[in-house]
Design goal:
The chain is α+β, with helices and mostly antiparallel strands and 408 residues long. 39% of the residues lie in helices and 18% in strands. It has helices at residues 13-42, 50-60, 74-96, 210-213, 215-226, 233-267, 278-281, 287-293, 295-309, 354-365, 397-403, and strands spanning 2-10, 115-119, 126-127, 133-135, 139-144, 155-160, 166-173, 186-191, 195-199, 204-206, 270-274, 312-316, 342-344, 351-353, 370-372, 375-377. A hairpin with a 3-residue loop joins strand 8 (186-191) and strand 9. Helix 1 crosses helix 3. It is elongated, with a radius of gyration of 27 Å. The model is unreliable at 372-408 (pLDDT under 50).
Length: 408
Amino acid sequence: MQLRYGFRLYPNGPQQSALARAFGCARVVFNDALRVREDARAAGLPFVTSAELSKQLTSAKRTPQRAWLAEVSSVILQQSLRDLDAAYRNFFDGLKGKRPKTGPPCFKSKRDSRQAIRFTANAGWRITPGGKLRLPKVGDVSVKWSRTLPSTPSTVTVIKDSAGRYFASFVVETEPAEVLPEVTPQVGIDLGLGHFAVLSDGRKIDSPRFLRRAEKQLKKAQRSLSRKAKKSANRNKARLRLARAHARVADARREFHHQLSTKLIRENQAIAVEDLAVKGLARTRLAKSVHDAGWSQFLAMLEYKASRYGRTLVRIGRFEPTSQVCSACGVKDGPKPLHVRVWECGACQTVLDRDINAAVNVAKAAGLAVTACGAQVRPGLVPAQRDETGTHPNPHPTTARQAGIALL
């Protein structure tokens, strides 16, 4: 499988100027190609192919207006055209329903918070014996190697973020699987805001709330930025201070997600989570807390780590009533307001913690056998709806398909 390894770069002054020139050239080529295609669409002409755009790029280098495009590696210019093709492909696939909908390609600005260029293998870049990254027409850039690469990289992407930091991102081909030794525990996870995660074994993981804790510092940096004159040097310095403060929050959140996801993958053979509607929750009054939690990033880490290390990750539907069903007897007791954290089942009189009960139900809905508060919980029949418990155990196949019941 292919993985991406990122490392911090520390270019000197001339190298920063060369990288800024490369970022600008890649952006101009992208915008020029997008303008050609948009003009052709407005005029009712056929879609301009990538080969035609490449020819126009070669011709533009010979003109006085675009002669400076020859000052950078031609590979990053060709990769910029491929990025435009990928943007159009994603847009059209979204219209066809093959992937989530995205907007059409838009023009890039030199004030974008993220600038990136990509070097492929035929660009002539390499890692020097001294541990530096040699980039064509840029030089040998110092790299902070935090770990060794498992194999020879195929591409490298140089990124500059809004905080002015430089990174090198390598695409590396790794072994198909690095399977961890099998373990017995299986766990269900209920994600929330009061606690970041509640496990079906009763453990509760507090939410660090990195953004909330840094609000005072961020507010001070934002106030300082708003008081600076526009287009002044002091305003740019204030903008960098604010961007670095936000970057520290994002880095701390990402580190927390990595540590927790790795721990859960190592300790459990199977993990069950709920497929949350994060976009919908981000439009409510809890939007800031939802974004601060970063559930989508955490679930993405669980997914790729489970695939890499031979674990099982199961997602259950977001409409599964995990907070309404008693995990002891399976009776659906109806919705409950958020302030009810502990409730008693009316059928079996079991006192249930709302979050732990939901985590156990997540595991049961995924078909996992988990231990909840010292008692073994039997997994229920996942495909059948909970209001169809009176269905005959051996229904007619046609009737079963119509009712949506799986024949076991």
